[in-house]
Write a structure and sequence with these properties.
Blueprint (H helix, E strand, L loop, with lengths): L5 E6 L6 H12 L4 E5 L8 H7 L11 H12 L4 E7 L4 E8 L4 E6 L6 H4 L4 E5 L3 H15 L4 H19 L8 E6 L13 E6 L9 H6 L9 E8 L2 E8 L5 H14 L14 E4 L2 E4 L1 H22 L2
Parallel strand pairs: 1-5, 1-6, 2-5, 6-7
Antiparallel strand pairs: 3-4, 7-8, 8-10, 9-10, 11-12
Helix pairs in contact: 1-9, 5-6, 8-9
Length: about 300
């Protein structure tokens, strides 16, 4: 494979935050530098056909896996693709898009790590793993606000997908380099947005940055640090666990973003921090600082991977 682009894969169940995470990274690195696509566009059947056949969009048989493999490979080599387009509002397909990859390619969706060939195309693989109760709330908010569903319809769709979620989505977690989990703090179990904590499992499958300066700066006068790292175990294997407190302040976040920017050297001056951490709460736009720091750390890996291929 003749690598010409840097590819990030973002996988997770429906409404786990994939598009939100991706959008911030695209804004950060610059829309002119990032090509973002959704692997859910490769559905084989429209919504009515799926209903008639009794198959969910999560099932590999409901997706053109072979074409996804082919297209990921072409994007990796910097070659254009004619990408299908699935319209979530209508449940049908729109005309295909001609995609010319830029420096960075971000692929988000349900089945991006399903096969070895697909996984080999990515420099960085991220899996989003929110608690199920939180994901359900996110899905209800999104699908009722943007896709015209009722709460009952969303819950029924979730029920039908339970088996396929466990069989095809959850196993991809084991394939990721970074597992991201946003979760409510113990003091507020009903939190669903700005003040969620973030936990990042940093597996040794890719080299992670030395964050000692960031961690030191995150200490606050004897209180619990806003950002902390520890050696833990994930799926029985050792991994670094980075935690960001949901109560981190604007000022502290800006300071830590600057420190993370120092790790990115020349790329930092080109980064747009304005839309970092922005997410949709129904139809309202809000900001999460743990999300912002997560997006910046993932962007770090993309920039570093770019530097590696340019120096070899």
């Amino acid at each position: 494979m003749h690598q010409k682009t840097i590819m990030l894969g973002v996988v997770g169940d429906s409404a786990s935050g994939k598009t939100t995470l991706t959008r911030g990274i695209v804004n950060l690195l610059g829309r002119e530098n990032v090509t973002a696509i959704c692997s859910d566009d490769y559905h084989r059947y429209n919504r009515n056909q799926r209903k008639e056949m009794g198959i969910t969009a999560l099932h590999p048989d409901c997706n053109y896996i072979d074409i996804m493999e082919q297209h990921f490979h072409l994007l990796r080599e910097g070659k254009p693709i004619l990408k299908p387009v699935y319209n979530h509002s209508t449940g049908d397909f729109d005309p295909p898009e001609y995609i010319i990859p830029t420096k960075f390619v971000v692929v988000e969706g349900l089945l991006g790590f399903h096969t070895r060939l697909m996984r080999r195309c990515f420099d960085v693989k991220v899996y989003l793993d929110p608690p199920e109760s939180l994901r359900v709330e996110w899905k209800i908010k999104r699908d009722t606000a943007k896709r015209g569903y009722t709460r009952e319809q969303v819950l029924e769709a979730l029920r039908k997908r339970t088996v396929d979620t466990a069989k095809f989505i959850h196993p991809q977690r084991a394939m990721a380099d970074i597992v991201v989990r946003f979760y409510p703090p113990a003091s507020n179990a009903n939190e669903t947005g700005s003040h969620l904590n973030a936990s990042l499992v940093l597996r040794p499958t890719i080299p992670h940055p030395d964050l000692s300066d960031v961690l030191k700066h995150a200490q606050t006068n004897g209180n619990i640090p806003m950002v902390a790292m520890s050696l833990g175990r994930d799926d029985g294997k050792p991994a670094d666990i980075l935690k960001v407190d949901g109560s981190i302040s604007t000022e502290k976040t800006i300071e830590l973003e600057k420190l993370l920017g120092n790790h990115l050297m020349s790329a930092a001056s080109q980064m747009n921090l304005e839309k970092l951490g922005v997410y949709q709460d129904g139809l309202r736009e809000k900001k999460s600082y743990p999300l912002a720091l997560t997006q910046m750390l993932i962007a770090y890996h993309m920039v570093k991977a770019k530097e590696m291929i340019e120096t070899h």
